[in-house]
Amino acid sequence: MLELSGLQVSRHGRRVVDGVSLTVAPGQVTALLGANGAGKSELVLGVAGLMPVTGGTVRVDGRDLTGLTPDRIRAAGVAAVPEGHHVLTQLTVEENLRAAGSLLPAAEIAAVMDEVWTLFPELAERRRQKAGTMSGGQQQMLAIGHALMCRPKYLLIDEMSLGLAPLIVSRLAKVVTDLAARGMGILLVEQFVEVALRLASHVIVLRKGAVRLSVHPDEVRHDRTRLSDAYL
Ligand SMILES: Nc1ncnc2c1ncn2[C@@H]1O[C@H](COP(=O)(O)OP(=O)(O)OP(=O)(O)O)[C@@H](O)[C@H]1O
Ligand SMILES: [Mg+2]
After folding, report:
1. Considering every ligand atom, which ligand is closest to the CA of 33?
2. Which ligand is nearest to the CA of 191?
3. Is residue 58 situated within a structural domain?
4. Nearest CA to ligand 1 atom 26
5. pTM to 2 decimal places
6. Is 96 a member of any domain?
7. Are residues 150 and 75 in contact, defined by beta-carbon separation less than 8 angstroms?
8. How many secondary structure helices (H) and strands (E) does the chain include?
9. 15-38, pLDDT tens digit by residue?
10. pLDDT reported for residue 140
11. Of 33, 45, 86, 229, which is the most buried if we count CB atoms within 10 A?
12. CA–CA separation, 81 and 73 (whole Å)
């Protein structure tokens, strides 16, 4: 399990994540929803070690990762895909993945890269293309591939489908399903509620940095007012 317990993340002295407890189980998708400014991105950055955690703990399979550097958190099996599909635009697709795999023993890089090519044939076809010349959807695939290069047990994806066409969103949703089927635990921040409810086995709504709703998707699928009430 990836377990957050009373997690706090502050920005400019204000607690933007204020005591969040949640779990992500292996092989399952936990969806994290909430309005703009609810603290979803700060939570992801805090777990990944990219924002300082000011209270609470992050544990993976019982091991405390709170306060470790981003590299050590990745090495412990937790990888994040931050909002906005960041890739190294001047490098080729393959160079991007190679850079992302720098924590792995050299002999393993090729094997993990092969897994990424299998998952994303779209990227395999473009392995010598500069990342910056690809579409937003392809760059999002590469950003996910980037995170996969550290062989994570848990993957946090922030705003997976933001700004992407419906066809690409379905494609990415399929990848999330495949990764979960292989045993990866996924925390998915997703603005398309339909997509989130379809993929997730647990849904959490964050408001003002705190958990306002924590349910099985079936509990809200036909009662959207419960979801919208939690947002507002
Ligand atoms: N770069 C920043 N500078 C100052 N405050 C910020 C910054 N980024 C976020 N915040 C503040 O931190 C709080 C949490 O923001 P966060 O980005 O985590 O929300 P979010 O749930 O990811 O929202 P969104 O749906 O817009 O991505 C908000 O109150 C926001 O105003
Ligand atoms: Mg955000």
Report:
1. 1
2. 1
3. yes
4. 36
5. 0.94
6. no
7. yes
8. 10, 10
9. 999 999 999 999 999 999 999 999
10. 96
11. 33
12. 13
